[in-house]
Every structure is written in C-alpha cells, then in structure tokens.
Amino acid sequence: MKKKFLSNLILVLVLNIVIKPFYILGIDAEILKITEQNSPGSYGTYFSLLSLAFIFNIILDMGVNNFNTRNIAQNNQLLQKHFSKIFSLKLILSIFYISVLFIVGLIFNFSFQEMKWLIIIGFNQILVALILFIRSNMSALLLFKKDSVLSVTDRLILIFFCGYFIWSIGDDSIITIDFFILSQTIAYLITLIAGFLLLVKHSKFPKLKWDQLFFKMIVKKSLPYALLIFLMSVYYYSDVVMVERIRGNIEVANYAHGYRFFMAFNMLGYLFAGLLLPIFSKLIKEKKSVVPVSWLSFKLIYFFALIICVTVWTYKVEIIHWRYEINGSLLLHSSETFGWLIISFIAVSCNYIFGTLLTAKGSMKQLNILAVFGILINISLNLLLIPDKGSSGAAFASAFTQFFILAFQIALCYKIFNFKSSLLYIIQISSFSLLFIILVYTIENNLNINWLEKIVLNIIGGGIIGLFLKVVNWKQFYNLIKHDKSS
Which helix (H) or strand (E) holds 394? Predict the structure, then answer.
C-alpha cells in the first residue's frame, strides 16, 4: 500500500504542481489584475459570490463523495450497483442547491448582475460536483493515474482558452468576469464528459433511477460527513463573505491577491488528502497500522510547507508587487494579508493528513465538535478584526483557527490510533525548522543579490538541510518501494 501511495504521488505531483499553480497564478491572477484595473471591485464581488457558493456546496454532496470513496475502496463490487443511483441523487441535490443560492441572493438583495453571476457560479459548482463524484469512484478503485489526469483537465483547458485571449489577442476589454465565469463552464463540461467516458469502462453508463429508500439510506449514512464539510466550509469561506459585507468588494480583492498564491501552494496538501483517504480506509479495514504512512506523509508535507511558508513570508511584498504591479499602501496591506495566509498554510497542509486519517476512521463526532469550535473562533475573530484591519484581520483569524484545529486533530490521532511520540522525529523536525529559518535570515541579510535569486538559494538550502537531517529520507522511500508487498 505504501508503494502504491509513493509511486502515484510522484505522478500526481508532477501533473498538479505544474498545471494547477500555473492556472491559478498565470490565468486566475492575471484576470484578477486586469479586471481590477478595468473595473475596481468586480473581482472582489466575484470572489465573494464564489465563497458564498462554496459555503453551500455541501448541498451538492451531502458527504456522499467521502462516503462513496470509503465504501467503494472497501467494497469494489458495489460500484456497479450504486453508481446510477448516486448520480441520480446528485442531480436532485443540484436542483435544491441552485434554489438555495437563488433564495440567499434574494435575502442579500443582490443586483441583477450579482444574481446572474451567482447562478452561473452555482451551475459551475454543480459540474464540479459531478466531476468530483466521478473522481471519487476512480480514487476508490485506486485508479490514481486516470484520476490525476482528470484532476487537471479543466485547468488545462482554461489555460489554453483564457491564455489565448489574454496573451495572443491582447485586448484587455475582452477579459471580464462574465468571460471568466463562462470559460469555466466550458472547461467543466468538457472535463465531465471525459470523466464519464473514462469511468464507463469500469461501470455501466449511468441511468436516472428514482430509489427513495436508497436515497434516504445513503444520505442518512452520509450526514456526519455532510455536517463536517458544511462546518469546515463555514470557517474556510465565511471570512471572504464577511469582508465583502463589512468592508466592501475592493477590500475582498486585496484578500484575493494573496489568496491566489495560497491556493496554488494548497494543491500540495489537497493532493495528499485525495490519495490518502482510500489508502487509510483500506489499512483500517485490514487492521494494519496507519502510523508509518501517516508519519511519512506528515514529514513530507511539513518539509515542503515550511520551506514555502518561511521563504514566501520573507519576500511577500516583492511577490505581490511582481504579480499585480501595485504599490504604496495597497501593496503593504495586500502583503500583510498574504503573510498571514501563508503562515496558515503550514497548519492547513498538516490538517490534510490528520483530518483525512480521522475521516477514514469515521471519527465524525469528534471532527464535527472540533469544527464547531473552529467556526466560533473564526467568526468571533473576524467580527472583531475586520472592521479595523480588513482583509489582514480576516487572514489572521484564518491562521489562528487553522492552528487551533491542527493541535486538536493531532491530539485526537494520538488518542484514537495510539500514536507514540518519537524523539527522533521531534528532533528532526525541530532542527530542520530552526536551521532553515536561520538560513533564510542569513541569506536575506548578508547576500547582495535580488530576491528571486535568494528564493532559489532558500529552496536549495532547505532541500539540503532536509536531506541531511533525514526529514526527507530517500533511502527509506526506496526501501518501501522495493520491499513493500502489501499492494
């Protein structure tokens, strides 16, 4: 199992680290830059509406994807039986989802344009939900290569389509929020069709089937997962909506400047979670220890997260100026927001490991209680900080909440899985953290070179320190691949 995890992780990283960050920082960030120059606040409005749609995304899923991944991973034969029924349930939930968004838009008294954007964004989220359902089946069947290719298809389409209009046509008047949203619609439709064609080789083509008893059963079993996803969505995305409601859409754009980078880096943890859920599920069912894969994953993700966090935080002002060409107080404010977001990146990355492990175990009650506390902390801090600090206050609230969640998730894993503290691991991670911070400080204050060259030296130096301290132990990885007979 560890062999399968490591071998497929390489493919996933190659595909996603190249394509998705390029889309986020090359296409999405460029559209943010252009639309805010041509129509200040328009991207902020879009970003707020997108976050609002994310909060209610649970209606599209009801926890079915996590349940389906876990269930099919443990019982592959159920794919043929359940696929059409769950697909039909997804369509019913989609109608309910759009209705809820429409009602929320009326309650918030959105303008015609805002309502139009919200509905199209909602339709796009329906397409994404269907794509994720297809991918959950591929992941459960351990078809990681097909899943990996499908995971980047929509972004690859958007890169070529939007990139053509941004760089080949060169007419900024074409680049509007309407153009951007509809481009996503086209990309998601093509990806959905491709996903169906890939999956029907392993299952019959879905037919609409009304099975009320099955729907009740699957939703009832999925409710704990659904509640967790909803609660997590609230403290993940409510900050953007609150910033827009309290300080306006231009302030949201300041938040988005750094958030684009955060999302690009966040792909790393998200990929780990997608791979680990079915693997943890199988290990738990077979009563095998999850500790080796857990520590392997944690050390890997912490290694990358710390290098990214410390390096980017040190040069946050230069990075924001380079990407968006903004200056003065706006640059400093966006950079401060970016700094807190990138600090939260460490906690978010590690949460993917421990949260996925607890989800695979089915420890939903504990996770839901923890998420409730996360919401209370996040919303309270946002209400306190946003009126004065704006986007930077929201980013600080997010960082504080994520580290709170991480601390208690680790504690739960120690209790449930009988993790034992390893003095060697503690020394490795602590030494790596200290030495890398010293390295970055030394390079920043003693070398008279530009900031891009300093970033390169930081990455190389961090890699050397990690290898020397065996935080990243390639020999261990090689032995796992060579000798593991569990897959």
Answer: helix 391-417
Q: In this structure, what DSSP letter does residue 164 have? A: I
Question: What CA–CA distances, in Å, run from 258 to 24, 181, 270, 306, 480?
Answer: 11, 21, 18, 17, 38
Per-residue pLDDT tens for 414-433? 888 877 767 777 888 999 99
**DSSP class per residue in 330-377:** HHHHHHHHHHHHHHHHHHHHHHHHHHHHHHHHT-HHHHHHHHHHHHHH
Q: Give me 274's structure tokens.
A: 């997608």
pTM of the model: 0.84
**Pseudo-torsion of CA 174, 317, 14, 166, nearest 10°?**
10
Pair of tokens at residue 367: 């996770």
At residue 72, the pLDDT reads: 56
28 confidence band (pLDDT: 50, 70, 90): very high
What is the Cα Rg of the chain in Å? 22
Exposed e or buried b for every residue in 280-293, given b needs 16+ CB within 10 A? Answer: bbbbbeeeeebbeb
pLDDT tens digit sequence for 345-395:
999 999 988 988 888 887 888 889 999 999 999 999 999 999 999 999 999
For residues 145 and 267, what is the distance between their CA atoms, to the nearest angstrom? Answer: 17
Output the six-digit token pair for 245: 């409601």
Note whether 231 and 372 are within 8 A (CB). Answer: yes
Distance, in Å, from the CA atom of 203 to the CA atom of 83, rounded to the nearest integer, reads 8
Look at residues 169, 134, 166 and name the one whose alpha carbon lies nearest to residue 153: 134
